[in-house]
Amino acid sequence: MKRELKKKKGFVLHHIVIIIMGILMFLFVGVSFMGEAQSLDKYLIANRIAGNYMKKMDSYGNGYLSEDKASKLVSDFQSNGFTNIDLTGTTMSEVDNGGDIYLDIKFDQTIKQFSFDGLKLSFQSKTVRSEIAISDTSKN
Amino acid sequence: MPGLKKKKGSAYILTLFAFLTFLLLYTIFAIGITKYKLAAVGEILDNSLVVSNLSVFSTNNLDQDLLSQSPDKNIIIIKDPNKAIETWKKHMKYNFSLDDNYTPKYSTSFIKSKVDIKTFIIYNVDPTTNNITEYKYNAQAGSFDTENFPSQKGIMKTENGNTINVTTVDSNIGFTIDTIFNKTKYVTIGRDVGIYKKN
User: Fold this and answer.
1) Is B1 domain-assigned?
2) Which residues of chain A have a CB within 8 Å of the CB of B21?
3) 3-state DSSP call for residue B14?
4) Partner-chain residue, chosen from A26, A36, A137, that has the shortest CB–CB distance to B87
5) Interface predicted TM-score (ipTM) of this complex, two decimals
6) What is this structure's pTM?
7) What is the pLDDT of residues A87-126, one digit of tens each?
8) Closest Cα of chain B to A71: distance in Å?
C-alpha cells in the first residue's frame, strides 16, 4: 500500500513536470512567433502609409513630396512607433510631367524578442533599420 | 505485478499524448503565423507590382496627340509598347529592390530567387470604336505580339480575370519565397491596372 502511494506521487509529479515544460515551451515558441509577426505587421503598416503618400505624389501632388506632406508623413510614422525617419532620396521638388519620382523612407523599428541570459529568460528590445523604397512616374 | 505493468504503460501513453498535443499546438501556431506572414508579404509585393504597372502610364508613353485632339473623348492609348515595358522594368526593379539580373539586392528581401516576367500585356482601348488592341510581350523574342479585338470593350477580360473597359496594363511575375519550416515555394503574382482621365 505504501509502495503504491509513493509511485502515485511520482507519477503525478512526472506529469506535472511534463505539462509545465510543455506549456513553457509552447509559450516560448508562441511569443517568438508573435514577435516576428508583430514586426512584419508594423512593416506592413509602414508600407501602407508610404503607398498612400506615393499616390498623393504621382496623381495630384505635382510629382513631388511637399514640405507639408513630408512633415505629415514623418508624423504618421512616429505615431505608429517608428523613429529616426530619413527621407533622403525622396523627390522633394517638381519634376517634368511623366518623369520618374521616388519615395524613399528609412526608419528605425523596435522589435521585442526573447533572449537568454544564462538560465534567465527575458524580453529585449532590438532596433532594426528598415527601408521602404517606391518609384513611379509623375502624372500631374 | 500486473498492476505495475499497467501503470508503466499508462505513464508512457500519457507522456506521448502530452508530447503529441504540444507538437500539434506548435504546428497549428506555426501554420497560423505563416499564413498571416504570407498574406502580409503578399500585400506588400502586390502593392509593388501595382505601382510598377502604374508607372507605365507616364505621359511620355501615352499618345498625347490623340488625347489633345479630342480631350472630351478621353482616348488614352499607350503609344510605344517597347518604351512602356522599359519604363515598367525600370520601376519594377526599383520597387522590388532587384538588380539588373532581376535578382534581389538584399538577403533580407522577401523574394529568394530571380524574378521571372511571366506576362506583360498592354490592352489599348479605343472608346470611340470599343476596339481593343492587345500587345503581349514575348520574353524569349524580346518583342510584342499584336492582336486586334473589335468591339470587345467591356467584354474581353485580362489574364487576371478583370473586364477591360479602359487602357490596361496586366503583368504577372514569378519568384521563390520562404514558407514554413525553412521550406521555399515558387509563387506567381499578377495585377492589372487601368487608367482613365477624370473630366
Assistant:
1) no
2) 22
3) helix
4) A137
5) 0.82
6) 0.83
7) 999 999 888 888 999 999 999 998 877 666 666 667 778 8
8) 23
